Amino acid sequence: MVLVGYGTAVGVLVDLDHFLIARLKTGRWTAVRFCLANPTAAVADQQRIFDAGDVGLLSRLASHLLIVGVVVPLLAVSSVPLAILTGTVLYVHILSDVLWDRWRLERQADETATADELVRALR
Fold this sequence. Notes:
123 residues, transmembrane, mainly alpha
């Protein structure tokens, strides 16, 4: 049970980097302030936390990979099993992010293509 709790915490806490990325890109802590004022949004309505462009797909994935590349080797120094568990959880997290982003981009492309076809048909 402890390992499940640890894995869940790692999988969730890795996303805290989004706040730092948003701060670096915008120069403001708006997202952090929003979550502190609206804590349920962090779980129930995450789309309201960041404005478009605050984090960015590539910045988010690169940051996650940087975290894995630093945290897993550091953990391996003290506990190889913990490093393996952490690396596995973060790998699955990043893979899920990539698959989700790919699905969203393909859906967006399909919607754009459909809209373009509709505009052409209306001409």
